[in-house]
Amino acid sequence: MKPNQLIFLSLFLSLFLITSCKTEDPAGVYAAWKQQNDSYFSNMKDSSGYVLYNIPEYEGGGSFYYKITTPGDQGSVSPLYNSQVKVNYRGKLINQLVFDQTYTGLIPPMDSISAPRQFYANQLIRGWTENLMQMKVGETRTLVLPQQLGYGAAGAGMAIAPYSTTVWEVQLVSY
């Protein structure tokens, strides 16, 4: 091997080893995003029409904000923890980026191409489960879930960064 090739190879290997040994701290990388999301959730107390719900400590604690935008059938009962639910929804980050939805219009009942999805309430993120167990059939809510009741420090793939506060429009179609 020629001396120039040897130098190049050793330099390349050195750089490769130095850069591959770095471990990035997710909290450090996402520190500014986490702070923005925590601040957004903290400032919800000033938002008109939103209700702060505190989950009892014996059920795990935590809190979220919600606003009922369309009341449901008050004669119906709410789903249970293990109920299968059919819902329309739209999930957004605090920067208004939509990361998942079952409808494209302004509200699900008016969207002719909405495609409700079925889930078991207890297989969803905790903030959803808590809300669904309070909702009535036909009810639509806007939910503001802190990362602790959503996707946490792990996030969810490329769509939802770690520490994200999520904002949801959820309509309980049936269960």
Q: In words, what does this structure look like?
A:
The chain has 175 residues and is of the alpha+beta class. The protein has a single domain, classed as Chitinase A, domain 3 (Roll). Helix content is 23%, strand content 26%. Strands 1, 2, 3, 4, 5, 6 and 7 form a seven-stranded antiparallel β-sheet that branches.
- DSSP strand tally: 7
Task: Summarize the biggest pleated sheet.
Answer: 7 strands, antiparallel
Describe the global form. Answer: globular
Count of runs of 4 or more consecutive helical residues = 4
Q: What is the CATH level 1 assignment?
A: Alpha Beta
Share of residues in strands: 25-35%
Helix content: 10-25%
Examine the coordinates and then state which fold CATH places here, giving the name of the CATH topology: Chitinase A, domain 3
Helix/strand structural class: alpha+beta
Radius of gyration: 22 Å
Instruction: Domain count, please report it.
Output: 1
- Topology as H/E string? HHHEEEEEHEE
What CATH architecture label applies? Answer: Roll
Spatial separation of the terminal alpha carbons: 71 Å
> Spans with pLDDT under 50 lasting ≥5 residues?
8-23
Global mean pLDDT: 85
